[in-house]
Write a structure and sequence with these properties.
It is a single chain. The protein is α/β, with parallel strands linked by helices and about 240 residues long. The protein folds into 2 domains: about 150 residues, no CATH class; about 90 residues, no CATH class. Helix content is about 30%, strand content about 30%. It is built from 7 helices and 9 strands; from the N terminus they run H-E-H-E-E-H-H-E-E-H-E-H-E-E-E-H.
């Protein structure tokens, strides 16, 4: 349908959705993976923010708000706490969803992988309405969103976890400390990108480790140290320390 001749009606939106549910209407709003975010946040690689970003509506999979998770998108459209007022607002402001430029009021999303987006601070009802509205109008992309994207150094964290467990299980008398440093920042009005590097500081007060081992290790260094400590000959290093 040509958006120029589109005449929205709040009652029609719900009736049409119930009569012919579009693809994805039975999917449930997923909770934001807060546990994963908390575990991985110290190992961030990049943090990107944009005040005028696009999002394919099918990439909007859930929300930070626990009040709405678990409902299907169709159930939310019908029974969302503030949905009647939002459906009427959609009918009264049809250009809000399709006109270019930043959304006012804002709609914000957060992503941990660049694929799945979760409503961050505001926009659950409008996202739901857009899914059904856009299906009828054969549209897919919502623009003008505030989007925050996090990427994590999962390889480094996995290697650090293995090394930590090895040190614990073998009672190796060394101290390690993960460090994260901001190495680059790019920004302009409405957009920013921060880049980080993750390293491991190694302190060897008992002289357990081979001479010449760097005090600061990158991901490859963490892997090399883990492999060395996993070999049978690792015990000979402790003779110098008297343990």
């Amino acid at each position: 349908m040509d958006p120029i001749h589109f005449s929205p009606d709040a009652a029609d939106l719900l009736a049409r959705a119930k009569a012919a549910p579009p693809h994805g209407s039975g999917e449930r709003l997923l909770p934001f993976p807060q546990g994963r975010f908390a575990a991985m946040a110290p190992f961030v690689l990049t943090h990107r923010g944009c005040d005028d970003a696009p999002l394919n509506l099918f990439q909007g999979v859930g929300t930070r708000d626990p009040d709405y998770t678990g409902m299907t998108w169709l159930e939310f459209l019908e029974r969302g706490r503030h949905m009647p007022a939002n459906r009427q607002w959609w009918a009264d402001n049809p250009g809000y969803y399709t006109e270019p430029g930043r959304k006012r009021p804002a709609m914000s999303f957060v992503s941990l992988d660049g694929t799945d987006g979760y409503v961050d601070a505001d926009g659950e009802h409008r996202t739901c309405i857009a899914r059904f509205d856009f299906d009828h109008r054969v549209l897919r992309t919502l623009t003008g969103l505030s989007l925050t994207d996090w990427r994590f150094d999962e390889v480094f964290k996995g290697r650090l976890d293995r090394l930590t467990e090895l040190i614990r299980s073998r009672r190796i008398q060394i101290e390690i400390e993960h460090q994260k440093a901001l190495v680059e920042r790019s920004d302009n009005p409405g957009w920013k990108l921060d880049c980080y590097v993750n390293t491991l500081q190694v302190v060897d007060p008992a002289g357990c480790l081979p001479a010449g081992l760097p005090e600061t290790l990158d991901s490859a260094g963490v892997l090399a140290l883990t492999r060395s400590l996993s070999r049978p000959h690792w015990r000979r290093w402790f003779r110098r320390g008297g343990t």
